Amino acid sequence: MSPRFALIPALLATALACTKPTEAPPPDTGLDPDECVPVTWYEDADGDGHGVVTSTLVDCSNAALSGYVMDVFDDCNDDNPQVHPGLPEVCDGIDQDCDAQVDEEATTSVPWHADLDGDGFGDAANIRDSCEQPAGYVEDATDCNDYDADVHPGASETCNGLDDDCDSTVDDRDELTYYPFYYDLDLDGFGDPDNSVMACEQPDGLLEDGTDCDDTNVDVFPGAEETCNTLDDDCDGTIDDPDVLPYTTYYTDDDGDGFGDPATAISTCDGLSGLVLDGTDCDDSAADVSPGSPEQCNGLDDNCNGVADDASIYNYWYPDGDGDGYGVYDPAPIYSCVNIAGSAPNDDDCDDLDPLVNPGEFEVCGDLFDSDCDGNDCAEWRDDFEDGLDPAWVNTSARPWLTTNLEKYAGAYSAVNGDIADSQRTEMTVTLTYSDPGTMEFWYKTSTEASYDYLKFYVDGALDRQWSGTVGWTLHTKAVTAGTHVFKWEYYKDGSVSSGSDSVWIDDVFADGGTLP
Length: 517
Prior knowledge:
Elements: H1 3-17, E1 39-43, E2 52-59, E3 68-70, E4 110-114, E5 127-130, E6 137-138, E7 179-183, E8 196-199, E9 206-207, E10 248-252, E11 266-268, E12 275-276, E13 315-319, E14 334-336, E15 343-344, E16 382-383, E17 402-404, E18 414-416, E19 425-447, E20 454-459, E21 462-467, E22 470-480, E23 483-492, E24 503-515
Antiparallel strand pairs: 1-2, 1-3, 4-5, 4-6, 7-8, 7-9, 10-11, 10-12, 13-14, 13-15, 16-24, 17-18, 18-24, 19-22, 19-23, 19-24, 20-21, 20-23
């Protein structure tokens, strides 16, 4: 029997007899010293000052009992003096503070750093304290770009515009070889020796060559043909080199139309102002008269072909009774270079009594009129979204397309994709019939993650084109054959990053030759 339990009968006997100690008077407790006041003691086997509720002893003595404590019974492990409430947690797999949690907020935990790119070097700004190394974390905190596995301390510096080895220097000159590259402002393929930059890799638009003697003139560079222009065209140090240039015949051009008077020929190589190489003007006093000028109906030989008012400016003028700019053949047309009042330069009208019927009108389907004179009473389908989505659209996505006035190519509205999350898509289709080959055209705009989130355009289930990134309003035209076709516009997002407005738009959809079935 444990010595402390051997005391129990004696202590109980003392309590029953309520005998007083004879060694010394008891302390003043405020109680009658002749009465026995039992006290519950809790076993503290590990001596840490915290007892357990599962092992108690009742005693009337005011003196402390060895191996017991009074009124403290919160120990969760009475065999370990380093385990009781109030102790700080340490990384050892033990619940030091008796709160039923192990190693939480441990004072000896280690700061681990995220290694998102898996290069073995961690991000100093992305920390997780833990007793054990979490997956994807390392002790190192020296990575300067945790999204690129090729960038970390000790990596080889390459000429890429990045600080590959995390030494705070981009494209380190101490490790890479730098060369001079020259600007080519006139884009003649030869650089300006006085306008260069040092770089480890040839920058876009700059050249290795630096031998241009005039980088403001695309016609001046080494090897260019020497011309009579008071310039050193070939950069050989000699202007208008007499060893390579013949004399040239020039002509005065008094009317400034670019064609000279053949009677004023001058052979020279000094680039005299006001002279031209062409000497074929038939009237150097009139700027509107020269070879190549449009012939006018004015009794003059405007184009210097030897004929005044030649047949090239004559036209057949057809009666235009309704004044819509489209005429009819009957009665017979008039052949003239002068515009004939009440006539039109074509006979394309199919109803010369109605100004709203001609090839320039927009067909309205079902009004019993061939408004555009194409032989059909049916309109080519289009939707500019000004009155919402046309009922012809099939829009069954969980988050369907809708109209918006926040972005538009023309008018006040366009169509925008439904608001979808990652790895989702939203689409709408329209089915149209073409009696002859025609086109489908529309304007589109994108503001998405480039190369990942796409606006896709399909014809009969086959992908025609797709666009991503930031693209301003652009017209797309697709040629289609005769027959019935299904056109689909789809916005698809991949499973990660969003960018820009995360949206795509289409506007002014026009089926040239296509109608609703």
